[in-house]
Design brief:
With 64 residues, this protein is mostly helical. It has four helices and no strands. The chain starts with a helix and ends with a helix.
């Protein structure tokens, strides 16, 4: 993620730590890293759509 204020706040860091997510802060000029995030996001989004389609009446928060 970039160094925007909302991503470097104490609350955000605590939330990501509680979910086991690792944060890697990169300079805002690091455009070459955007593709990595977009590819990962596409895989997660595809899996989410499959789960929603195949499991009837699943709560969207649970599916995520």
């Amino acid at each position: 993620m970039d160094t925007r204020k909302q991503f470097t706040s104490k609350e955000f860091v605590q939330l990501t730590n509680s979910t086991g997510t690792k944060i890697k802060i990169v300079p805002m000029e690091a455009h070459h890293l955007v593709g990595i995030v977009e590819r990962y996001h596409n895989m997660v989004q595809r899996a989410y759509k499959i789960i929603i389609a195949e499991i009837n009446r699943i709560n969207k928060d649970v599916a995520l």
